[in-house]
Specification:
Blueprint: H1 2-80, E1 92-94, E2 97-103, H2 104-107, H3 117-131, E3 137-144, H4 158-175, E4 183-187, H5 200-206, E5 208-215, H6 216-219
Parallel strand pairs: 3-4
Antiparallel strand pairs: 1-2, 2-5, 3-5
Length: about 220
């Protein structure tokens, strides 16, 4: 009887151990499958990141190549630009020639487009330079105003006032012997200020007439 009980006990213990081993194996397999799934997900994500990085690299290389081509083109264009030469006193050298700016108050009364008598002496000096140092240049006259709206002077707007002032200077230069074929007048109104129109001194600076002496073919298309 005791032997039978002992045998039964041993069989039950063996069954428990076997069940425990099977359970452990199933748990280990489940953990391995979960780990494998996690690693696969991470691998797929890494592949996606790699592909994205490669696309960004290709895009960057394309932009870099384009930028390098732009730099090369601009360097070549800059190398072909003529160097500004020294300008006479009062003039500013610019590519293709020179420019001189005169405050509108020197040339015109407020709101007017008729040259002051004293303005003629100033312009006579400019005529001498235009016929001498810049005798082969085109002459572009730009009128500029500040941003104060036209109220009492009778002009439609600052464009008209600046245009009439530029035209008055062009006509004077023509009367003094500058060839009309070299002359052009343009009114810029208040739209090309040198400084912000936020004070009276600045507005005075912006009210001006600019006279450019420029290479005809390069700047205006006119064949000398």
């Amino acid at each position: 009887m005791n032997k039978r009980r002992t045998l039964i006990t041993m069989l039950i213990a063996t069954a428990v151990v076997s069940t425990g081993c099977a359970t452990n194996k199933k748990s280990e397999m489940a953990m391995m499958r979960a780990r494998n799934k996690e690693l696969t997900t991470r691998l797929n994500r890494a592949y996606a990141d790699l592909e994205s990085a490669m696309r960004e690299r290709d895009s960057f290389n394309t932009r870099l190549t384009s930028a390098m081509q732009d730099v090369t083109s601009l360097q070549a264009e800059l190398a072909n630009q003529p160097e500004p030469v020294a300008a006479p006193v009062g003039w500013t050298a610019v590519p293709g020639g020179a420019m001189i700016a005169i405050e509108s108050g020197v040339l015109f009364a407020p709101g007017k487009a008729i040259l002051r008598p004293r303005a003629r002496k100033t312009l006579d000096g400019i005529v001498s330079t235009l016929q001498g140092e810049y005798g082969d240049k085109d002459i572009l006259v730009f009128g500029h105003t500040d941003d104060t709206p036209i109220k009492k002077s009778g002009w439609k707007d600052n464009w008209q006032l600046s245009s009439e002032r530029a035209l008055a200077v062009v006509r004077f230069l023509s009367e003094r012997g500058v060839s009309p074929e070299r002359l052009a007048a343009c009114g810029a109104g208040q739209y090309r200020p040198k400084v912000p129109n936020n004070s009276e001194p600045n507005r005075t600076t912006n009210r001006r007439v600019e006279i450019f002496a420029l290479t005809a073919q390069a700047k205006t298309g006119r064949t000398p």
